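Support request from a user on the community tier.

User writes: "When I paste my structure tokens into the form, the page sometimes reloads and wipes my input. The last time it worked, I copied everything first. Here is what I submitted, just in case something in the input itself triggers the reload:"
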């Protein structure tokens, strides 16, 4: 990295010689800036097994987003809504599939759920929406007044930068890591975060010892043939813990997780 912009190193590292992974901030890269949280609800009634709902994207471009979902059948447990295929949620194995899709043509989000059951079941989605763009030419958002702090990305003038071209601004909350670690889990396990609310989080799964995927990490939830058996790998969180499930009561498997101070609910 060149001697330009702003760099802040982690405790114990010289900022002059620190590698990118030893920095807690650099204006060379963009921090995820939270724009808002969108709500979307899908309700199934009677013997209905699947349903969808939509919510408009308030931004004029395809944004980065993190989706999460909870069910009235397992209240207060929030899982990433990342997987459209088969789901195997511990404590409620009637889940069939769940996903949030961004519809580019209509600039909206589709929330989908399938669940085998009877009666009224409500699925609540929270979509964490970021200022940061997936693709396209940077678009203009409501202007930032001339107060607070703005730091532009490398090569962009802070005087003319659009919100998505800023590395950091005090107008928005940035994702801040509260906990980062790994844990070995056989079948089911959990770690305590004690934040008192359900935090934004990301988890990766490594099928330790697998002859094919032993060196791979999968964004979680996921499913596949791990250690010779089809398994559904699940994670979910509440206001005190992050939970893991591997459907593997024999082999220890590794999860790596990031828990952020910013909340889902």
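"...and here is what came back when it finally went through:"
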């Amino acid at each position: 990295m060149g001697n330009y912009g702003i760099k802040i190193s982690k405790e114990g590292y010289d900022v002059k010689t620190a590698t990118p992974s030893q920095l807690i901030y650099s204006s060379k890269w963009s921090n995820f800036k939270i724009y808002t949280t969108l709500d979307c609800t899908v309700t199934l009634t009677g013997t209905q097994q699947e349903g969808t709902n939509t919510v408009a994207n308030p931004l004029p471009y395809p944004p980065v987003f993190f989706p999460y979902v909870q069910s009235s059948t397992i209240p207060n447990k929030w899982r990433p809504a990342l997987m459209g295929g088969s789901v195997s949620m511990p404590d409620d194995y009637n889940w069939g599939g769940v996903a949030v899709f961004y519809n580019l043509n209509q600039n909206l989000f589709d929330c989908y759920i399938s669940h085998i059951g009877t009666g009224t079941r409500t699925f609540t989605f929270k979509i964490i929406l970021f200022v940061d763009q997936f693709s396209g030419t940077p678009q203009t958002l409501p202007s930032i007044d001339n107060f607070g702090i703005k730091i532009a990305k490398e090569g962009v003038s802070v005087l003319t930068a659009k919100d998505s071209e800023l590395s950091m601004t005090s107008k928005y909350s940035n994702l801040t890591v509260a906990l980062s670690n790994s844990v070995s889990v056989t079948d089911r396990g959990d770690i305590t975060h004690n934040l008192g609310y359900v935090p934004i989080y990301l988890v990766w799964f490594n099928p330790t010892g697998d002859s094919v995927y032993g060196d791979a990490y999968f964004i979680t939830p996921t499913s596949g043939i791990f250690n010779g058996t089809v398994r559904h790998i699940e994670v979910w969180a509440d206001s005190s813990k992050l939970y893991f499930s591997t459907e593997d009561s024999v082999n220890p498997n590794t999860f790596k997780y990031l828990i952020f101070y910013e909340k889902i609910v």
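Agent notes: The reload is a front-end session timeout and is unrelated to the input. Residues 31-174 form one domain. The chain has two domains: 31-174, 177-263. Escalated to web team.
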